[in-house]
Amino acid sequence: MSKRVTMDIDGASVVMVTSASKERVDHVVKQVNEMITLVKSKDRSLSSNMAYRYAMVYLSDQVVELKEVLDSPGDGSFTDDKSMDLKREIAKLKEEILQWEGRTAQLQELLLEKNQQIQELKSLR
């Protein structure tokens, strides 16, 4: 059964719907906070916003099960088929946004890496 869970991620309160156990959620939150700390310490130019995006993409991969939640609402709140279709469409769009944000973050990380390599090559000259 899915439940609403509030997590503290890097000082921000994040609410998600999940069917994962409390132990699993706590484990993932610990991993995310460690990841944010590592990412920030590794690259000081990385903004908190970017680290937060990394965290949200990771959390969505590890905890959130939107399709399952939408397929079995359980609380009877989805009585209208059109409303259900809209909620599915919104969930799909949110999922796509997270995927694009993840891709953007990966490309920005790759760009930073390439810029560092360029600087290293310039310093060798």
Description:
The chain has one domain. Helix content is 69%, strand content 11%. The protein is flat, with a radius of gyration of 18 Å. It has a two-stranded antiparallel sheet. It has 4 helices and 2 strands, in the order E-E-H-H-H-H. It is mainly alpha-helical.
Describe the secondary-structure layout.
Elements lengths: L2 E7 L2 E7 L3 H21 L5 H15 L3 H6 L9 H44 L1
Antiparallel strand pairs: 1-2
Count helical runs: 4
Share of residues in strands: 5-15%
How would you state the average pLDDT, rounded?
Answer: 71
State the total count of DSSP E strands. Answer: 2
Distance between the termini: 61 Å
Element-level helix/strand string: EEHHHH
Radius of gyration: 18 Å
Tell me the strand order in the biggest sheet. 1-2
Shape: flat
Largest sheet data: 2 strands, antiparallel
Structural class: mainly alpha
Tally of discrete structural domains? 1
Poorly predicted spans: 65-71
Query: How helix-rich are the residues, as a percent range?
Result: 55-70%
Notable traits:
single chain; 125 residues; mainly alpha; two-stranded antiparallel sheet; 2 strands; flat
Question: In a nutshell, what does this entry contain?
Answer:
By secondary structure, the protein is mostly helical. The protein has helices at 22-42, 48-62, 66-71, 81-124, and strands at 3-9, 12-18.
